[in-house]
Design brief:
heterodimer, A: 410 residues, alpha+beta, six-stranded mixed β-barrel, elongated, B: 220 residues, alpha/beta, six-stranded mixed beta sheet, four-stranded antiparallel beta sheet
């Protein structure tokens, strides 16, 4: 019977051309939606290196330009710039915040977590001059105490790095794989690929991953540099004891004001920032889903109308089939099977086009074979389901006619 | 072989009820060639449809080979249509997108029969109607007479006991009509029971018995 249905669908291919084209386009749209959703799911499953529970982020604003320039000059000249009481500002914050009961770690970074910000640079291997575009993040020694930032080789930053000949850096696994395939990157030297900078780095550790934007950030090679204790802090990450709630924020604010009351502080729990970031990054997917749902509903209405007409035009043929021995069930399933087979033709053509994406690698990491298979399967099921739903009523109606009614149908 | 007892059939259109068949009693024995005649709209095609289980009567009983069909399910009736009856229609009812051989095979698709056996039977049926050379053609590449011979081959491919023909020559010229009639007579001589609806007295004379219908009733 399947061979017979195949023959019928094939012989009627010119009549079904527009319908097939409509299904093909609908499949492409659904495939894109499924691929984007699948990509988000893949990213969500990957490690971020970030911990958000019982973590707070403090953003500091209000530093004046002169003060920033003084600190920058001090860093460049490698002299020590101290505040009143001969203690660097960073250390003052450390001491003030560590005094809060339940405070586990205080660390400093230069770009906010769970935020759209990112900074990048081009770095190169000192030996082979191989270049790589990398994300850069500046973190203090305490940042490596974050439970999700897993070191897979070497170490994080510590006091032994003070005064080192080369700036210590930690890289992520992606960067290690791309720049040092099959080699141990620990101890290897890197250079910033900039005409204005002669900075050289030495790799002291490799972390599994560090994606500052959170779970839905694309995976890119990342370079982690050490936060200079002479710098003016702009972002603090506070890790507090389990069970700490938002009432702690008032106490944190008091401690911060003790250090610099003229600066402005914004305190946010990282859990809240993470949720907000996830919502923001889901917006394109939600928009695509809404557009696709609209398009698919149009396709479904169109499909239903075309199927209704096609089935009506075939009723005498179906009457003949009833007369020569087909049951109502045979008729019902034949119409549905024909529609599904027609779909599979359209899907096969669409897949022939789409398979070029993973084959040629034109989308790079965005489309691997696993994602392609996942998106293809999901899109096939969705399109087949829509077709099935649209075919049910015309098939049912045709199967209910008596052979006599069907044979004389006009 | 076929026994109709007190068969009635009504058609309802809007608020009008038309009695198509009224208390029909008819028996057709094995090997008979029966012609049903009557003016247009008298109910002869309705009678043939009820004999062939294409339609259900409003009242009355149908017996086929001694079996009363009152409570038969859709699948049981479909099986009887497939295995006991062969149908020939005035307008051929061939599927234009399928080749002649595929059209002839069609009734066998609804039996669990291997494809090679189906193909062999279809070829044999086409050979009997003299269309072996045309089996790879499509119906619209054939003349009307050839198309009706294909329909006869399709009706005969499952080796039914009873052949029901509804004005089989109605769409054909006299020469092609004669060809088709000779095919039907050959089948009857080979033992197939035939019930044929016709307007043509000459063709009806070939049958063993003529049944006349007028206003839904048998008149002789």
């Amino acid at each position: 019977m399947i061979h017979h249905i195949f023959k019928l669908v094939w012989q009627r291919k010119s009549r079904h051309l527009l319908l097939s084209l409509e299904m093909l386009l609908a499949f492409l749209v659904v495939f894109v939606l499924c691929a984007v959703a699948g990509r988000y799911y893949q990213l969500y499953q990957l490690p971020t290196g970030l911990s958000h529970q019982f973590h707070w982020q403090v953003s500091i604003e209000g530093q004046d330009r002169e003060e920033l320039l003084q600190h920058e000059a001090a860093i460049n000249s490698k002299t020590q710039l101290v505040d009143a009481g001969n203690i660097p500002v960073v250390e003052q914050y450390q001491r003030a915040l560590q005094a809060i009961p339940g405070m586990k770690h205080v660390s400093f970074i230069d770009i906010p977590l769970y935020d759209m910000s990112r900074q990048s640079t081009t770095t190169q291997r000192s030996d082979t001059q191989q270049r790589l575009e990398v994300n850069v993040m500046n973190v203090s020694d305490g940042f490596f105490s974050s439970p999700n930032l897993r070191l897979v080789a070497g170490r994080g930053f510590n006091q032994t790095d003070n005064g080192a000949a080369h700036q210590p850096v930690v890289i992520d696994q992606r960067m290690a794989e791309q720049l040092f395939p099959g080699e141990d990157p620990i101890g290897k030297l890197l250079q910033e690929d900039s005409s204005t900078s002669m900075t050289s780095f030495q790799i002291v550790g490799v972390v599994e991953a560090l994606r500052n934007q959170g779970e839905l950030m694309t995976v890119s090679p990342t370079l982690i540099t050490r936060f200079n204790s002479q710098s003016l802090p702009s972002i603090l990450i506070l890790q507090l004891a389990d069970g700490t709630d938002r009432s702690i924020e008032q106490q944190i604010m008091q401690q911060l004001k003790q250090v610099r009351s003229d600066w402005r502080y914004t305190i946010e729990p990282l859990t809240q920032k993470r949720q907000s970031m996830l919502r923001t990054m889901m917006i394109p997917l939600i928009l695509l889903a809404v557009l696709s749902a609209f398009l698919l509903s149009m396709v479904a209405f169109g499909l239903f109308g075309v199927l209704w007409q096609h089935t009506n035009a075939r009723i005498p043929e179906l009457g003949l089939r009833r007369a020569i021995g087909a049951t109502a069930g045979n008729i019902y399933w034949q119409i549905i099977a024909e529609q599904l087979m027609l779909n599979l033709f359209a899907i096969a053509i669409a897949l022939l086009l789409l398979v070029q994406l993973p084959l040629t690698g034109v989308l790079g990491n965005l489309m691997d074979w696993r994602l392609f298979l996942m998106a293809s399967t999901a899109a096939t099921l969705i399109i087949c389901l829509i077709s099935l739903v649209c075919a049910l009523y015309p098939a049912w109606r045709a199967s209910r006619l008596t052979p006599t009614e069907a044979l004389h149908y006009e | 072989m076929i026994k109709l007892s007190a068969i009635s059939k009504n058609y309802h259109t809007d608020k009008v009820q038309t009695r198509a068949l009224d208390n029909i009693n008819l028996q057709v024995d094995a090997g008979e060639f029966v012609s049903i005649m009557g003016p247009s709209g008298c109910g002869k095609s309705t009678l043939l449809n009820i004999i062939g289980l294409l339609d259900r009567p409003a009242s009355g009983q149908i017996e086929i080979n001694g079996q009363l069909l009152g409570n038969y399910s859709d699948s049981q009736v479909a099986k009887l249509r497939n295995q006991t009856f062969g149908f020939i229609f005035q307008s051929f009812h061939l599927i234009n997108e399928l080749r002649v051989i595929d059209n002839v095979e069609l009734p066998l698709l609804y039996r669990k029969m291997p494809a090679t056996e189906r193909r062999a039977k279809a070829k044999a049926a086409l050979e009997k109607v003299g269309l072996t050379a045309r089996m790879e053609h499509f119906p619209n590449q054939l003349s009307g007479g050839q198309q009706q011979r294909v329909a006869i081959a399709r009706a005969m491919v499952g080796e039914p006991q009873i052949l029901l023909a509804d004005e089989p020559t109605g769409n054909l010229d006299s020469q092609m009509g004669a060809e088709v009639m000779s095919q039907l007579l050959a089948l009857n001589q080979a033992g197939t029971t035939i019930v044929m609806v016709t307007h043509n007295e000459q063709e009806a004379k070939h049958s063993n018995r003529i049944v006349r219908v007028f206003d839904g009733q048998l008149v002789q």
